[in-house]
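Final report, results section. Input specification for complex C-07:
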Amino acid sequence: MSFAELIEVANAYGRDETYSRAGGGNASIKEDGILYIKPSGVPLATLTEEDLVPLRMDVLLDALHSDAPVEGDPVRVAAQRALVRDTGRRPSVEILFHALIPQKLVLHTHPVVANALTCNENAEELIGELLGDQAIFVPYTDPGVPLARKVEEVRTAFEKRTGKPSPGITLLGNHGIIIAGDTAEEIHSLSRTLTTAVQTAIDAAPAAQVPSLDAEEYRRVVTHVSPALRGLLRDGNRLAVITSDCGDLARQGMLLAEGPLIPDQIVYAGSIPLVLETKGHDDLVTYAEQAVAQYREKYGKNPIIIVVPGVAVLAAGKDLTAARTALLTYTDAVRVARDANRLGAVRVMNQRERGFIENWEAESYRKKIAAGHSGGRLDGKVVVVTGAAQGFGLGIAQELAKEGAHLVLGDLNLAQAQVEAEKLGGRALEVNVSDEHSTKDFVAQICEIYGGADVFISNAGVLRAGSVMTQPVADFDLVTAVNYKGYFLCVQAIAPTMAIQHRTAPDVWFDIIEINSKSGLEGSKRNFAYAGSKFGGIGLTQSFALELVEDGIKVNAICPGNYLDGPLWMDPERGLFVQYLEAGKVPGAKTIDDVREFYEAKVPMRRGCVPADLATAIYYIVEQTYETGQAVPVTGGQNMLS
Ligand SMILES: NC(=O)c1ccc[n+]([C@@H]2O[C@H](COP(=O)([O-])OP(=O)(O)OC[C@H]3O[C@@H](n4cnc5c(N)ncnc54)[C@H](O)[C@@H]3O)[C@@H](O)[C@H]2O)c1
Ligand SMILES: [Zn+2]
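Structure output:
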C-alpha cells in the first residue's frame, strides 16, 4: 500500500455519496511508526498526499492509555504532542482509533447502507447473523478518547474469545464503519462484502409504502411556508435560504422526531426537525410563525429541518450549500431509518448522547460561521435576473455573483442560461416572461430552490425597430408582450413571495428592479414599439412602487444607455447596428461603423454602457432604504432628468 493508493481509496469513497456526505469520514496510512492522516476540513474526495498530517503513533497510543489529566481537549493535546511536522492542518478527532488498528490502511466513513445495521436496537445480534466473525460491533460511544478506548476494548474481547486477530470490519453503533486492510484491494473487498450482506438483507424485507406525490400541496408549501421561514429563521438582516425536496425519501413519512440517528445528522441537520401539518391550514404564514415560536420555546434554538409529513422536507441554511447539506443529510437519515426498520428496529441516539454532540458541535460550528463571512455586498441574497442568458442580463449576473449573491438566471434560452449559471455557481431556469403560467412556475421553482428572493431584476426585453407606417403588428405585439406585459407578469408572480418575506422580516426591504432604457425617458425615432413599452415600464414602476411599499418592496427602474458592445447591438443578423442601418434610422449612414460612431458621438462620456455600470446602480438601489418608484439613468450623461 503506497501513499498514492491511499489517496485513490480516499478519493473514491469520498466521491461516493452513499459512503460520505459533506466531506465526512477519514483515512490514514501507517509507515515506520508514523500515522499519516487526513486533516479535518479537507474532504476525502479531494484529499491529496500533501494534505496528510504525520503523527507519531507511540505518542498517540500513550495518550490513549494514559489517565494523566491534560489541559484542554485530550485528543487535541495528544495530536499536538505527536505532530512530526506542522502542516498547518488540524488532524481529526478520530486519530486515536486509526492509531490502534494495526493494518496499514484505515478508512472510516458513514455509509447509508451499513448504518441501517449500526442504527439498530439489536445491531449486535443482526451483525452476528449477517457477518459472523467478519465484523465487530462497537456500541455508540462519545467521540474522541472514549470511542477509541471502546474500540480497543471490543477488539481485545474478540481476540480473547476467538483466539484470532480482530477482523477488518468494525461497525460503530449510530455512527459508521471502519475498514482496515493492508492493500487497496482488501479495502474494496471488505467494503463489498459488508455492503452486499446488508443490502441483500434489506431487500429481503418488505418496503414501507411511500405516499404519492401531492404536487399541489407541495407547491403551496414552497410558495408560502418557505418564504415565511426565510424571515423567521434569518440571521439579522440576512434571510435564510430554504431549500426543499418532495422525492421518495422526503415523503417517506419518517419524521425522526424522536431523535437523530448519527452525529453527522446533528451537526448538519440538527437533532430534531420541526413538523408542520399544513393540510387544513389556510394561513400557512401564521401557522409557520406559531410553529417556529413553539419550537424555539421547546428547544431553545431554530429548526434546521422542517418536515411536512407525506409532502416534503425543507431545510434552512445561511446559504444554499448549507441548506442542501442539511437536506441531504436528513434524507440520508430517513433512508437509514427506513432500512433499519426493515432489518429490525431503528435505534435513535438518546438525549444524553445527542446532548454531548450538540454542545461539542456548538463551539466548532460558531468558528465555522465566523470564518464563513466573505464580506460581499450581496452576501447570501437571492437575486433573480430574467433574460440572463446573454447581454445585459448575463453581465449583471456576472457582476453580482462577485458580490456573493445567489443567482437565478431565467431565460427562454435555457441551454445557454445553464452554461452561464454553472460558471457563476447559480441556477438556470426556463421562463417566458410574457406567459402567465411560465412566470408563476418560475417563481415556484425559485421558492423550491431558495425559498424566495431578495432582489428581482426584470431584464428580459426585445427590440423590433421600424417605421410606424410599415411595422408589422406582430412585431409591435411581441415587443409589448415581452417588455411591458412581461414586466407586469413577473411582478405579479414575485410580489406575493416578497410580501410573505416581509411579514416575517418586517424591517428588511426587498427590491424589484426593471431594466428599462433611456428610450423610456425620451422618444425613439423609428423605434416606437420599444420606446412605448419602456415608457409604459416607468408607469408600471411608479404605480407598483406606490402599492408595494406596504409590503416592504421597493420598485425602481434603471435606464441604461446603449450597450454597444453587447449582443443586442453586435449580432450580425438581428443586431441593432444592422436593424438601424436597414431602417435608415441614422441619416447618411452607409456602414455599421457609421452607425456605431453616430451613437458614440451622442454620449458626453463617449462610450457605450457596460454591465458594471448597471451593477453600480443596482447596489445603490438595493442598499438605500429611502427611495422607491424612481428611474435611475445610466447613460454617460446622454439623458438628463428634468
Ligand atoms: N442593449 C442595449 O443597448 C440596451 C440599452 C438599454 C436598455 N436595454 C434593455 O436591457 C435589457 C436586456 O437587453 P440586452 O441588450 O441584453 O438583450 P439581449 O437580446 O442581448 O438579451 C435578451 C435576453 O432575454 C431573453 N429573452 C427574450 N425574450 C424573453 C422572454 N419572453 N422571456 C424570457 N427571456 C427572454 C433572450 O433569450 C436573451 O437571452 C432589455 O430590457 C433591454 O431593453 C438594452
Ligand atoms: Zn465518524
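The mean pLDDT is 94. The first helix runs from residue 3 to 15. This concludes the modelling results for the funded period.
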